[in-house]
Amino acid sequence: MSALNVLDAPAVDPSLDLEAEINRLRKEQNAVILAHYYQEGEIQDLADFLGDSLQLSRAARDTDADVIVFCGVHFMAETAKILNPDKIVVLPDLNAGCSLADSCPAPALARFKELHPDHAVVSYINCSAAVKAESDLICTSSNARRVIDSIPADQPILFAPDRNLGAWLQEQTGREMLLWQGTCVVHETFSERKLIKLLADHPGAKVIAHPECEDVILRHAHHIGSTSSLLTFATDDDADTFIVATESGILHQMRKASPDKTFLPLPPEAGCACNDCPYMKLNTMEKLYLCLRDLEPRIELDEELRLAALAPIDRMLDL
Ligand code: 13P
Ligand code: SF4
Question: What gap in Å lies between CA 210 and CA 300, rounded to an integer?
Answer without folding.
Answer: 31
